[in-house]
Structures are given as C-alpha cells and as structure tokens.
## 1
Amino acid sequence: MNERIVIQGLTKTYKKNEALKDVDLTIPAGAIVGLLGPNGSGKTTLLKILTGLIRSYKGTVSIGGRPVGEETKKMISYLPDEPYFADWMRVKDALGIFQDMYEDFDKARCLDMIGRFRIAEKARVRTLSKGTKEKFQLALVLSRRAPIVILDEPIGGVDPAAREVILDTILENYTKDQTLLIATHLIAELERIFDVAIFIREGRILLNKDVESLRMETGRSVDELFRERFRYE
C-alpha cells in the first residue's frame, strides 16, 4: 500500500510537558487504522497536527506527499472529540454550512444517514442527546468524499446498543481508496474493522503493525495485547 501520511521526528511540547516524543510513523492509503492509547497518551494532539489545528511542533509531517497546510486540509474530513455546532442551530443549518464549505460534501448521502439515525432536519442541536449529536456529526464527516477521514473517539459518547449501528455506518460509507484513521481507547468494540493497529503511550509509538499479522504471530486479539501492554494505566 502507498504511504498517505508520513511523520518523522515529530515532537510537540506544551510548556514542560512533551505530548509527542520523536514520533516516526507511516500510515498507508486504503486502510482502516486504529490509533490506540489511553486518555492523555497523545492521540488527539497527533490528530490536531495532521488536520492543521496545531501548527507549532518539531519534525516533519506530510500528507499525500505535501507538508501540512491549506492544501492538505482539503484532503481530510475530521470528527473532533468536541461539538462542531452551536446549540441554537438546526440540523438543516449545519447541513447547509457543510454544503457551502466543502465541495466534496454529498448531501444526499448525509440525509440518508441522518434518516437512519432518526434525526429530524428541523431539530435544534440543543434538543439532541449527546449520543445523537455524535451520530449527526459522524454523518456529516462521512458524507465528504475526502481521501482521509479522521475520527476521534467516534463511539465514546454513545451507548453500547448504538455502537454496532455506528460501526456499520462507518463501514458502509468507507471506500477502499480512503485512509480511515480512528483514535480510540475502546479496542474490543472497534478492532474487527482495523487493518492496522498503532499503540501510543505517553507520546511515543509503541507498535505500528498489520492487524492480521499481529494476531497470527501472537495468537491474541488486539484488545488482549492492548490490555497487557497498558494494564498499569
């Protein structure tokens, strides 16, 4: 597989705290990649650097052979771990914003997804539960035809019954030429969709490996390996 994201010597420091420490990482095109680590391990910082939200760091980061910048922002559809929209807005207003901002936004696809999630276009954001808000934002992000989709804890705020629905929605709307990068600490629920697993702890990459090879070599699931590696955290 071709390398879509290449990171070399990446270090990010907040005052005296190193959030990322000399990270070297390649992420291929056409793969679903799990960025796996406990809270505070550096996952969100890494995602914000990839999306251009954090610009000050040491090292090099390239996406599609280009340094992170305005051009690479267009290549990424990003689901952050916080709300996108103000509570007073209606669902249809958010749809309009995405349609105006992104040429690759497929409104028909989004309407289909929010219909399956039973989200009304006239509903105000403030009336949606936390889980429904996350489903709505996921629908918006998955409706862009971007080469890279980045999801930060996509099932963190939903109940277990809704997680399978969300996973199925992700798989149904993923295309094989995309790179899908999912940051999570909920390994058991998500590992069935991963092609590649990356373990991160205290800002360092501990593992970056093809999931099938990992299972064959160890005879264990990714979740079991994760729990062993991080059992004291």
## 2
Amino acid sequence: MDLIPEGADPLALLRQQPAELHRDLARLTEAQALMRYAPGKWTPKEMLLHIIDTERIFTYRALRFARGDAQSLPGFDENDFAANCEANDRPLSSLLTEYHAVRAATLALFGSLNAAQLDRAGLANGAPTSVRALVFITAGHERHHLAILRERYWPVLPPAEANSAQHLAAALR
C-alpha cells in the first residue's frame, strides 16, 4: 500500500492503470517481450501474467472475506506460478486481452462492495487482511511492477527503443 499516494482513491487507480500498462507493454515487439533484464528474472510476458495471476488471487481473497468466509486462505509461491505459466509461449496481445478481462472483473467486484463488506477481514497467508486493504494492495502491486518495468527493463532495450521508452516513462509521470 506504500505505492499508493495518501488520500488516493484505489478504485480510480485501478481504472486508470490498464491504459498505462497497455501503453508500456503494447509497444514491445514479441522478441522484446521475451527479454530479461538479468539472468533468472522474469520476462515482460511473465511479469504481466504474474500481475494477472496475483490479481485473481487478491480478488478471490477479497470475495471470500467480503462474503464472511472465516477460513484461513493459503499463500502462493509466485516463482512456482511463473515457472509454470507458459507466458512466453503466448502472444503478448493475448496476455494483454486477458489482463483487461481480469481487470474488468476486478473493478466489477470491488465496485460492488459496500462499506461493511470492505471492512470485513480474514487471514491470507497467515496474516489478517481486510477487503479494503486488498483493494489498495491490488493497485499497489501493479504500480510496483510498472516501476520495475521502467527502471530495469527499458534500459536494456536497444538504444533507439530505450530512448523512446525513457521519453514515454517521463511523459507518464
């Protein structure tokens, strides 16, 4: 939640983020979407599917808690998910389409919750978490990965692309 400015509306951020993410990723070629900024790091495609998978998990947790489910929900290993996601075998356009569908579902769920539902909480990965916190966490998670994309991936693109990406990143700030 540290990545969300104080006083910001997390639902407004969740509505704005798809255009920003799409602008950043849709400009990549398929080859660029397979690059890694360092050995062992995710490709942009893997990062995008990680954002998708994690958003699904966060919204599942929010749904369970909002509906009063008191069962403790397990965590997940993001690296195991990434190792088994096969994102690099899919076209980037397919991943972006899936991302937009998941975000639309996220906005529909979060937008439907009333104050009492947002205040409900449960245990996720052993930690108490409110539905309201999950709304903030979902928005902050994507902001975190967009920052990594801009700070670590853009500099390793070929020079002409790097200049374009730096200009784009500056324009989006």
## 3
Amino acid sequence: MTRFISFLAVSALALLATAQDAPTKPAVDKSYNRNNINQGLGKHLEGTRQEPNVTEWENKAVWPEGCRVEAEAAELKAEDFRVYEVRYGDCDEPWHMCVHDEAGSSKEHLAEQFGRIPIGMRAYVRNLVAQPQHFEKKTITAHFRSTGDMTTFVKVELATLVHEIGHALDFLALKDKMTRDGKKVSSFSKTKLWQDAVGKDSNVPTEYSRKSWVENFAETVIMATFDQNVPDARSKDVGPWPDSQKWDLFEEQLRTVVANVGGEITPDNEAKCKNRLQNSKVVPKNARTPKRELGLKPDLRIRDVSINVIEGDSAKDAVVVDGCDHNH
C-alpha cells in the first residue's frame, strides 16, 4: 500500500511539473558562462553572416505599421525614428528596420548581428525595431511580438537575438499547437509535445527558463543553436558549464528543439530564404498629414513567388513576450 501511494505521489508530481504556467524543474545550475555562448556564436555563426546593405527610406512621412505599434506602446514619437531597408545576399526580399535616434543599437550593429543568424531563423522576423532603454527595470533588453516584430532596447548581444528569434519559432514556425486536452494554443511551448519533453528531463537549462514555458523554449533554442553550431560546444573551455554532463540534464528539450527546428538553427552558406513573414502595411507617421503630402508609399508586398509567405498574428491578437530580463 505504501509503495502504491508513493507511486501515485510521484505520478502527481510529474503531472504537476507540466500542468503549471511555467516549468517547475530546477535549472541545470544557478549561473552559466554567457560570454562563452556569445563568443562561440559570434565565431561560428560567422559562416552564415551576410553583409547587410542598409538604405534609408526616401519617404520620411511613412513607415511600417509594425514599427508604429511598437513606438506607440512605448510612448515614443514617430518623428524620432528613421526607417531602413536591409538586404542580405541570401534573400531577394528585404527586411525593414526602424531605429530611434537614441536607440541602444545602431542600425549598423543591429543589421550586422541579425545577418549572422541563419536564414531559416531570420525568416520568422518581420520588422526590426531599435528603441532607447525606457523601462524602470534596466535589465529588460528586448522583446518579441507575435506579429513577427522584434524590438531591442540596448546594444544587443547575439545570444539575445537567438533568444528572441526562439520566440518567433515558438509562435510562428511550429504548427503543432494543441494542448494535452486538445485546445488550440498560441505557442508550441504550451503544447503537450513540448511539456512532455520537459517532463522527461530532470532540469531546464537556465534559471530564466523557469519564468514561463515560452522563456523555457527560447532559452533551449539558445543552447541548441550553440550545441549544433559550435565545435566542442560541451567542453569545459568552450561551453557554458565546466561539466559536460550538465547537457544531459535537459537532453529531451534539446532533442525536441532540434527535431522540430533543426533546419532553421543550422547555418548553410548556400541556403536561400524559403519562408518569409508577410511585411507590414505602410502607414503615415502622422495621422494628420494630408494625403497629398504623404508621397508615394513603398510597396512592401513580397513579390518572389518562390517564397512561402506566412502571416503573423494581427496586431489585435498578438502576444507580446515582454522582455529578456538580462542581455539575453
């Protein structure tokens, strides 16, 4: 009888670990070597880097609607933003970048760092937005909106971009979005498949992974991207932990990320963009500007018929994953 009760207790705890709003598993360690993560990604994602061609929009009276939404949410003035078209050699369709005059990331830095990211990951970002740090909590460095728009508030690290694009993969790239009771959910990280993977592991990769399922997935994307691309990623000198066996503690989470988005997180110098989020509409910076003064609006529609065009969430229905809590 005691053995049966113990079995029930263990089973209940296993269910509890995946029935919460966030994982209840402990982190692999209380800290990890983030410098090694950034150095490894910076060195070995170099092969996927495409030199950006950054051009400012000639028409200063209009901008992408996604940039407007981000600026209004932060109570920033449209007139303080510059809009750029950013092109890379691995995609015939450009991205669009809105940079505030006092932004933490310059247009050059953001475009260069973004270009290091594999094209399969970049494809799920619509607009890049650079704003000044305006939060009381100065550790917030970036956030993602499920329209496909990514906003940074500081001079962004490469690991931060990978984390935020992990959110893009979670919300927009992965289609198995059903909970264990068959309900539709907004992100892959809230599905039975992902939460069962966490349930099979003894740990989650970082303390920040314990904040929510969404952050748990994005943190695992960082580790999987590092593990897949950096030689000797699990070694003492190169990896985030001195003990390579730490990786075994969240192996099922790593395996599930690689099984579902492995093609996206691995660089390929010959790769071209196969998928792209549909671009924003173009809207006036000032709603009171007469139509005759708006000039010719850029046509941002994706024209390459070989590209699979994906729709992000509407601004009304979008989820905001509110801010990396360190330069992450």
## 4
Amino acid sequence: MWNLLDEPWLSVRRRPDAEQAGNHLSARPSDISVRELLLGADLYAELLVDFTTQRPAIYRQLLLPLVVDALGCPEDATAWGHMFTAGRFSEAQRERLTAYLDAHHHLFDLFSSDDPFAQVAGLTTSGDATKSAAVLVATAALGNNVPLFSSRTEGDRLALTPAQAARWLLHVHCWDTGAIKTGASGDPDAKAGKTTGNPVGPLGQLGVVMPLGTTVYETLLLNIPYGRQPLRNDLPQWRRRAKEGDVTTTLSCATPAWTTRAAQGLLDVWTWQARRVRLVPETTSEGELRVSRAVVAAGDRLLLDVDHEPHTAWHVDSARTRARRSAQRGERKGAGRERKGEESHFRPVRHRAGRAAWRGLDALLAVGKSTVEEHAKEETDGFHTSILLSQLVEVSDYLPVGYGAQVELTGTRYGTKLGNIEDVYHDEIPLPLAALRPDSDVRGALLGVVEQAEELARAVNALAAELRRAAGAPPPPLGAWQYPGETLLHALDPLVRRLLVGLREVGEEDFDRTEEGLLAWEERAYREAWRIADDLLSASNAASAFTGREVKGRDGQTRIARESSAEAFFRANLHRILFRRTARRQAREDTTDDSLTTEQ
C-alpha cells in the first residue's frame, strides 16, 4: 500500500553541479524514493532530515544495510579505494542493487497487513490500546517526555504523513527512551501489562560518530567497513521475519517476543529492532493517509560489541579501572545484581552536551589496534576511535588532497530513569585526514590546539577566582567559576573550526604551513583571551582588590590576593600556553635590541 522503495519520502539536496538530460539540477531540497537515492547516490549532496538524530537512523536502519546486503563490503582497502575514485556505482553494481530491490520489494511495505516494514503485524496490548503517534516523535510531548518549549501538549492530536511516520519509525528503533514499556500481547516477558528495565535505543547508548562525504555516494562508502566477510546469521531485519519458532533461535523480529543478545554482525547491529512497533494508519475525510496512533512495546536488547559497532569511539579502561570495575562486579554478583555484558574493557564515548566536537579530538584521533595495551596505560584510561575513522588512514591515498570530509556527532542525554530525553547533542566538524596518522605533524598540532584552548579557559577561570578573592567575595557556587572559561571556549570555537578547514589543505610533511596556521591561531586566541580578561578586570572595581586581601591558600599558608598579582599571573599563563606567539615576539624584541646596539 505504501512502499518505502517507491514512495518519495526521503528529502535530499542535489549536487549544484549535477546535470541530467542536459538540464541543470536544482540544489533545492526534493523528495525522492529509496530506489532513486541509491541508484543515483552520486547526484545528491546530502540527506536532509527533520531532526538531527534521524540521519544516522536512516543510514543505519535502511540505506547502508541495503547496499551491503546487495553488494557486500569491499574486499580490502584497494577495492574500497577503486569504488571511491569511481565516484558512483558501476553499471554492474546498479544492476545488482536493482535486482535486490526487486527481489525484496514486498518486505518494504510500511502498512502491509501481513508483514509491515520494521513492525509486528497485528501487535496489540492486553487492553487493545494504542497511543498517540507522539510516542514515536522525540520532539513531541507524551507522558514523561515533555520537551522544553514544545509547541504541542499531550492532548493535541498528532497526525503524521506516511513519510514522517517512516522516518520516526526508524528513529524509534535507534533512539527511543527506556524504562517501562507497554506489554504486548504474546510477549512472554510482559508482566501486568508492561515490561520493565528496557534500555534506551542502541544509538542512545553511544556517542555517534559518522563521517560525511561530499555526496550521498561518498557518505555511503565512508560508512561501510571494508574487509568484512559475510557471516551466515548476519542478516538485516527484513530478512529475519519468521512467525514461528523460538526467537532465540530464529532471531526473528516479526513477533512480540524479544531477546537479549549480541549482534550477529554488521547488518544485524545496523538494523537492530529495539522495539516492537505497529503503526495504525487511517484515511482522512480528504482521502489522505495519516498515522495518528501507534503501539510501541519492548524489543530486542543489544549487548554492545566493539567488533561490530562502527559508529562510535571507545573509552579503554586502564589496568586500575579494570581492577576497580571487576571488584564492583564481584560485589553485585554476590548480591545477585550482576549485569550482563560488563566484562568488556571498552565503553562507548558519550558526547557531552554543550561541548564542541573539537574538544573531544583526543578520542576521535586515537587510531590504532583495538587493544587495551595500545591505548590505556597502567594508571590512565585511553581511547580508541571508531572503526570507520580508523580505516580512513589506510584509504587516504585514494582521497584527493584537501578532501572535504566532515564528521557528524550526534547523541542524546536521557533523564535519570531513562523515561525522557533531556538533551540532544549535534555537531559537525571538518576532518583533516592527515590528523588520523599517529605520527603526523597535523595530528600533534590539533591535539596541541585543543589542550591550549582548555588551558586558556582554565587561566581565565583562575583569573576570575583570584579577583573574587582579592575583592573579598564569597566562593562562587559550584560550577559558576567555569563560566568565564566557557565564554572563552565559545569565542575560540570559530577559530578552531577555521584552523581545521585550513589544515585539510596541508600535506602531512608540510611543517612550515602547519606552523603558520598554528601561529595565526595563537595570535587570535591571545586577543580573545585578553578580551575576556579585560571584562573581568574592568568589573573588579572594589578598593580591596587593588590594595589586596589576606587569604589562606590550599597549603594553609597565608598570602595577599590583589588585582595586580592576578593580572600578572594571567599574563604569565598566556605567555606559557601560547608559546609560539611568545617566541616570535621575543625574537622580534631581540632583533630590535640588536639593531639599536649596532646603531649606537
């Protein structure tokens, strides 16, 4: 009745330079079908979405598994590189994609009465109740999930078009809230009409890291790992639709029953069915199809696996952290509260709301083997970047110099009981490919810039704290002291992004150009830091701040806190942190002194 492969439900922006039948294609957004998008992926610049978290959901739940199940993963870096340099699917690949879409066409009907896509046919609750379609929409108010400044209330009727319903259906499998879910009829684990202990959707447990290319075709390739051999039980969800048999054996997602398990492979984890869903379509008086009601119940619970999850960076436990977590597991086991999947020393790196993506470059650029010994020392935890960013090191020779790759980061923060979404994280930064090589100057430069920015923020915070002491002000509330530093980091944000774009054009061995960019960064950072500091010094007008006040330090010794000493300490910090600028200024002064001596 409404097939995802044929209906125009995906919004895209065409490449401005793309031409078709001699006519210039408009760069304005347009709606196309899945078939059109895949077969003409090189003609489209990007996939457009209603909400930022929909993009990884659509790619993972549909586009990527369609391509990989039809064509397989590239054999190695060379095969991947040849596909990338081709710039589009070959005629043979287009024929295989077309044959796959035709063979599985019947599995993509959104409102099929027998087997609806990504749903369970006839799914009901004990009372045959349905909920508002808002249960699918992260931005709509329903129950505990009441977004701030939402224009709708729970009482408002929400009628989704089939296109909207399809996008939010994929989204709910990836990002749905956790905790208590409606118990579905036929679910053996439902008790008293509900299931408890539901985790959030799989992507909600991650800090999603997704590389983006300059076309949809490039984005597809950048998100497909090479060298993956097909696994017998690794199938996309639309090929796991058995209606009979034990779900632990069939791995079917077409019945109300669900299981807790690890993914069988890439296709399985991409199309993970975290919920059992049924959309309830209706026809309006104008003859239009709408979805205003739905059933959302508990679905499969995923045990994260670092080998199969390509879209996140990982936190690697040190030996000390492993020992501490092992002791905690022993205590829980003794108390009968042991959790499944706790033995891993890898944990997803979650994005922090309000923190720019470039401030987490240490995790994104941690390229190497995924072993604890490689990235975590005895006392210090480490990082391991995503599978997809790691493989860019091996294929970088196939990418043009200055290639405009971007990295999109998305994530969600849930409430304490997981029943509501408190915040959504989204950022996108340019990615200099040279920075992914562990021994490159560009990598060292970027990590140095991030550390400089953080140190400058700490220096501004220290200045603000010392001025308060000199004025006799009470200690600032917890966290408030960070505000001047956060203001500075916000001011530095466009400077760092500009540097990232500039370093994309720099070769790995071009030390001089890298140093020029870093010196320009330090000059601008110096001006921004002093702008914030001047505001703090201007606001410090108490007489005691000038004359000084006796305070007790952390070591118990008394000292005099005054404005002049605070400013001098801040100035010294800037000279230490921005060492390139300091060295250049010193060299100029030395040259001037030498000139004066010669003249005399």
